[in-house]
Amino acid sequence: MNAGRPLPVPTPETAHFWEGTRLGELRLQTCRDCGNTYFPPRPFCPGCASRNVGVIRASGRGSLHSYVISHLPAPGFEPPYTIAVVKLDEGPKMMTNIVGTPCDPALLQLDHPVEVTFEALNEKITLPMFKLTGSSQ
Amino acid sequence: MKRARAAVIGAAETTEMGKLPHMSQLQLHADAALNALADAGLKPSDIDGIATAGETPESLALYLGITPTWIDATGVGGCSFLMHVRHAMSAIESGLCRHVLITHGESGRSRVAASGFPHPIPGSLPQQFETPFGTFGPPTMFTLPVLRFLKDRGYEQEDLARVAVVQREWAALNPRASQKAPITVDDVMASKMIAYPFRMLMCCLVTDGGGAIVLSAADRAADLHARPVYVIGTGESVEGNMISQMEDFSSSKAFRVSGRNAFAQAGITHADVDHLMIYDAFAHLPLYGLEDLGFCAPGEAAAFIREGHTRPGGRLPLNTNGGGLSYMHSGMYGMYALQESIRQMRGIAPAQVDGAKISVAHGVGGMFAASSTIIFSNERP
Questions:
Q1: pLDDT at position A2, please?
Q2: Which of B44, B51, B73, B337 has its CA 20 to 30 A from that of B236?
Q3: Which residues of A touch B242 (CB under 8 A)?
């Protein structure tokens, strides 16, 4: 991991997410009233405004929804690098980096299945990254 | 058309544009404001409303010597100035002020006393769930939905390139355009890679400049300016400040809401539109705009441009100043889209569309975060 990469600053509303990644779990939230599964974290349902929500452990599986390969300098990154959005099997979209595959558009086909992997930046912060799995859908 | 809601009685850009290291951001606002006031035949003491972004109403009031009874500091990025027109229209209609000065100025290239690109607040949701993955400015964020868009719509990267090519054709007709030399799709596709699939010539310029507008009530506008331009329809919306959470990567919700409301307020159909400006910070935006404003069905915008309908001589002249890709882009381009619409309605644009009576200016703020649409006419309904 490159030094100088921006570190997320957890808040009371997001602490469960970052506790989860530290433990190797990808956590989402689900509304107990309407069944909506959502991200990013907040202590109420963005679908129906209910406060009756709980934290779930997501499958960690999804598909490559879209990405760019940045050739620009950025603090803590060595260009080129892939900034991606994955669509999780549970529904929500999440920004991430694709690891384990070269930054080659021919290898990065949209809708390819992906799976979460965790990368610890320090003892407090672990980022959810994704890698390509199996064959293309 | 329903009715004129307000009228532009003064409009101008900065005296110079491009690379202006001898002018601060605030002076760019002031230079444009003085030009617009001269066009309106008004003095700063006649102005009782200020709307601005980048700078604040307070800094403009002090610098220009204005005592406002109404201000608007809406700052949602590049389309803020379109929203200012909408808000000022409403304020004038309800009697809160008479003459509103809307200013923009940005030392985007020379960075003289310039406000920077806003970085997310530590602990904010974008800072926690986007910034750690290497998003760093618009080229890595505004571009992120586009591969999805291309796949969903069956478009090619060359369709993005063609947007830049056609806008350069318009820029060639504009003496003030930064880039006027003709380019081909191959030139665009061979230009430096910035953030795949975006290449240098699909990304906007970075220049210095500004613009200002004086907006007043429609009923006396003809006494105040020889060629008043009427505001007949307006819209605005926001979707959100996280590009990763955009509801549909192939369509902007804010574009759709803003456009729909502007057309409804104006009481016009798409066939009534003679001239169109769609904020083009990057080459994909005119494609999204044509679809989300309803000029093209989803999947048909690329062919619409390829068939030449938006180029000089086409039936829907689009971004006739050359756009952010070839005319100028200081950072918050919306003011220049407004200025070109106003010039077209006054009949004084460098690439004038003959007989144009209705112009639509459509803006974006942030990375599909916000949007506003203004519809002008040179005829009072």
A1: 58
A2: B44
A3: 40, 95
Average pLDDT of span B357-374: 98
ipTM of this complex: 0.97
Residue-wise pLDDT tens digits, A74-123: 999 999 999 999 999 999 999 999 999 999 999 999 999 999 999 999 99
In-domain check, residue B108: yes
Note whether residue B149 is domain-resident: no
Q: Is the previous residue joined to A40 through a cis bond, with omega within 30 degrees of 0?
A: yes
CB B339 within 8 A of CB B17: no
**Which B residues 238-297 touch A at CB under 8 Å?**
242, 244-245, 249
Considering the domain boundaries, does residue B128 fall inside one?
no
Show the domain range for B367: 6-114+204-377
CATH number of the domain to which B38 belongs: 3.40.47.10
Domain count within chain B: 1
Q: Nearest residue of B to residue A65 by CA position? A: B148
Q: What tokens appear for A109 in the block?
A: 């086909």
List the single residue in B132, B133, B249 with the smallest CB-CB distance to A66: B249
Residues B298, B251 contacting (CB under 8 angstroms): yes
Q: Tell me whether B147 touches chain A (CB under 8 Å).
A: yes
* % of residues, chain B, pLDDT over 70: 100
Nearest 5°: phi and psi at B317? -60, 125
